[in-house]
Design goal:
Elements lengths: L1 H18 L6 H19 L11 H13 L1 H5 L19 H19 L14 E3 L1 H20 L2 H10 L10 H19 L6 H20 L4 H17 L5 H22 L17 H4 L1 H14 L9 H5 L5 H9 L10 H7 L11 H29 L5 H12 L13 H18 L4 E3 L1
Antiparallel strand pairs: 1-2
């Protein structure tokens, strides 16, 4: 029955995309929002989520809602130039782009839904993690974090968010320390609740919380949110299930806290910092709507980039390879992995970034076929990982998705490929050096 319902939603959204008018229609966008909510209600009423909706799908869906459906229904007619929407866009594509996002999400749900009675919670593995491996990873991560601070990484990040005129894309020695710290702290976070040594667990948690606080104080929320999601998910699975009501209250409190940090860091000068609507605290995500409109409009009227946009994500796995490829073939770096909306507005070398849109990037790369196939693959991949978490690769990849669940709808579709490969390589090297496996099932 679930399969038939999900196929029905996909067909309805495809038809809506086909017949979407070439002008803004509030009623049309509101209908798509209603269908999105209805499909989520049906999905999360499943027995799998009877205790808690805590999952990749929940956070991804929540972010997807804000990144694709809120602006046309709650902002366009009353506050059309709020935030980054002040830069302008073709408002004639709002309706069709919203319909496109609805199609993408319905394809994701079609792929991620399990059509058997198997519950992934009952099959979630219990790991025994070797203490020595995590001790080494803890010191490694501490060293990298101190190196990141020592070479000016935190100071650079502070300048990005407070002074302006500094690009977050600028690199230096601190960039390499940051990459290694992110990978090390990621591995620590996904296994911290799997260790029996309570003292070591507290030491790792203290380190993670201190680093999260440091990033929060300079205005960066990426590391804070990603590590928090991992810890939240790990705690719910290994320690105590977090009920839905508690989760929703926590999200609301955390959202206000993150928004408050931005406002305070900017000296209360953030544009529209006074909250008029409940959704104002999520403007960072809502402004992703503009990137969706810009990318779909450009793809329809100019060209699509196909596999070219994936060059950076694939080659960045090998240090220095992406720069070599770009320089050798004189590729337009703005076309690679999410830089096009910023380039269209500000040109090359901008110190200000507008981000991108997952659905927009799919369409910009491969058109409607890409939106359908990539969304289905994403959903199918998440489902496969959930049912195969006893395999190390699946466990790491699933938690990598969890860490980026909120950011994924506003990112490139090959997000975090480098961190995935490097995480596996680091674990492999640790085991080779120490001569024993880090993780054992019991």
């Amino acid at each position: 029955m679930s399969l038939i319902v999900n196929i029905f939603f996909v067909l309805v959204h495809f038809v809506l995309w086909q017949v979407s008018p070439a002008y803004f229609s509030y009623e049309f966008c509101a209908l798509i929002l209603f269908l999105f909510i209805l499909q989520n209600v049906i999905y999360f009423l499943r027995r799998e989520f009877s205790v808690s909706v805590l999952s990749f799908e929940f956070f991804f869906g929540f972010s997807f809602l804000l990144c694709n459906f809120i602006y046309p229904v709650f902002y366009y007619e009353t506050r059309p130039t709020i935030g980054m929407f002040q830069f302008g866009f073709n408002d004639k594509v709002i309706t069709s782009s919203t319909a496109l996002a609805g199609l993408a999400y319905s394809c994701f749900i079609l792929g991620v839904t399990s059509y058997s009675k198997k519950s992934f919670i009952n099959n979630f593995p219990r790991f025994r993690v070797e203490k020595i491996h995590l001790i080494i990873l803890l010191y490694f991560s501490m060293f990298c974090f101190l190196g990141y601070i020592g070479f000016g990484g935190l100071r650079h990040l502070d300048s990005v968010y407070s002074e302006g005129g500094v690009s977050i894309a600028e690199t230096g020695v601190f960039s390499y320390f940051n990459i290694l710290f992110n990978i090390g702290s990621f591995i620590l976070a996904i296994y911290v609740f799997c260790i029996e040594d309570k003292k070591l667990r507290l030491q790792i948690l203290a380190f993670l919380l201190i680093t999260m606080l440091c990033f929060a104080l300079v205005g960066s929320r990426t590391v804070v949110i990603s590590r928090f999601l991992i810890l939240l998910f790990g705690y719910s699975l290994y320690v105590k299930r977090i009920k839905t009501k508690v989760l929703l209250l926590g999200i609301l409190f955390g959202s206000f806290l993150m928004y408050s940090i931005v406002v305070i860091r900017s000296g209360f000068s953030v544009t529209n910092s006074v909250i008029v609507s409940f959704f104002d605290i999520y403007l960072d995500l809502i402004t992703t709507n503009r990137n969706l409109y810009v990318l779909t409009d450009f793809a329809d009227n100019n060209f699509k980039v196909y596999f070219l946009s994936a060059v950076y994500s694939v080659t960045s796995v090998v240090p220095g390879l992406s720069s070599f490829i770009n320089n050798s073939f004189q590729l337009n770096s703005e076309l690679l992995a999410g830089g096009w909306p910023t380039y269209l507005e500000f040109g090359s070398g901008s110190t200000y970034g507008l981000g991108t849109s997952l659905v927009g990037e799919m369409y910009f790369s491969f058109g409607i076929i890409g939106v359908v196939i990539i969304s289905l693959l994403l959903g199918t991949t998440i489902k496969y990982l959930k049912f195969n978490l006893n395999k190390r690769f699946c466990y790491i990849l699933y938690f990598l998705f969890v860490a980026n669940a909120v950011f994924y709808p506003r990112a490139f579709y090959l997000l975090e490929l480098r961190n995935l490969i490097w995480s596996i390589v680091i674990l492999f090297l640790l085991e080779r050096i120490l001569g024993k496996k880090m993780i054992k099932l019991f």
